[in-house]
Amino acid sequence: MKKIFAVALILLTLSVTAQKKKWVNLFDGKTTNGWHTWKETGVKGWHVMDGVLMTHGGNGDLVSDKEYGDYILEFEFKCAPKGNSGVIYKVIEDVNIKELFAPYASGPEFQIIDDVNYPDKIKDVQKTGANYDIQAPLDLKAVKPAGEWNKGKLVIKNNVIEHFVNGIKTASYEYGSVKWADDVAGSKFAKWPYAKAHAKGKISLQDHGDMVSFRKIRIKEL
Predict the structure, then answer these.
(1) What pLDDT was estimated at residue 7?
(2) Across the chain, which distance is largest between two alpha carbons, in Å?
(3) Global confidence as pTM
(4) Could you say which DSSP state residue 68 is in?
(5) 18 belongs to a structural domain
(6) Distance, CA of 70 to chain centre
(7) Mean pLDDT value across residues 63-92
(8) Radius of gyration of the chain from Cα atoms?
(9) Is residue 35 part of a domain?
(10) Which has the closest alpha carbon to 79: 173, 185, 150?
(11) What are phi and psi of 178, to 5 degrees?
(12) Is residue 202 domain-resident?
């Protein structure tokens, strides 16, 4: 009996593990289910057309309903010419914390921007694929021009975080490490909740005031 119970327990554990490792769509291609506007109920302004989730700007950031720890996130993005956006992760959403005025005040950002024609002069740490304002892209040629679809991937595992653009690694760092803390201490994020490492957080699609489109957003928890 004990042997049968042990085998059953192992099978159950394997089953649960397998379920955790399945890909789950965060965007069904038809609705905004699973998302809401930052610190609000429901979605305002963002809309779905032909399997694409988009905003024309001025509608606020979208935030996932769920929090996530370790995972792989895959998505496709298209930035409008002269546009700016990003995918922010480890987002804390709390209406009672005044320092949380936007998702990027609490979590790192996978930067998305028109590297070439953005109206303001930008540094490498502000270009597509960067860990925004902290680590410049490892490869500045990974991204396709604004107006074209690009593939993004974010991997978070045991505090090691990696960004990929079109299959090319553009950022890699250890979240919560001494180096990370030193980098953050010298940035504009130093006095925000961003500066305190946290295990889990929501995912946010940034509306920076410009048109941006996303599709094929899926996640696999690790």
Answers:
(1) 47
(2) 71
(3) 0.90
(4) B
(5) no
(6) 12
(7) 98
(8) 18
(9) yes
(10) 150
(11) -60, -45
(12) yes
Evaluate whether 137 touches 127 at the Cβ level (below 8 Å): yes
CATH number of the domain that residue 38 is part of: 2.60.120.560
Distance CA 160, CA 158 (A): 6
Q: What is the pLDDT of residue 21?
A: 84
Band (4; pLDDT cuts 50, 70, 90):
low
User: Which residue in the block uniquely carries the two structure tokens 């941006």?
Assistant: 212
Chain mean pLDDT for the chain = 93
Higher-confidence position of 12 and 26: 26
Pairing of strands 212-221, 71-79: antiparallel
Return all residues near 63 (Cβ < 8 A) that are at least 6 apart: 35, 36, 37, 38, 91, 93, 103, 202, 203, 204
CA–CA separation, 222 vs 212, rounded Å? 28
Q: What's the CA gap between 70 and 199, in Å, rounded? A: 8
Quick one: average pLDDT of 94-108?
A: 94
Residue whose tokens read 């002069």: 121
> For the chain, what is the domain count?
1
**DSSP annotation string for 147-205:** TS-EEEEEEEETTEEEEEETTEEEEEEETTSHHHHHHHHTSTTTTSGGGS--S-BEEEE
Contact call for residues 48 and 33 (beta carbons, < 8 A):
no
C-alpha 220/C-alpha 204 separation (Å) is: 16
Phi, psi at 67, each rounded to 5°: -100, 155
- 75's CB contacts (< 8 A; 6+ apart) are 87, 151, 152, 153, 214, 215, 216, 217, 218
Supply the range of the domain harboring residue 127. Answer: 25-221
Query: CA 50, CA 30: separation in Å to the nearest integer?
Result: 8
Mean pLDDT of 191-205: 97
Let me know if residue 20 belongs to a domain. no
* Distance from C-alpha of 77 to C-alpha of 144, rounded to nearest angstrom: 10
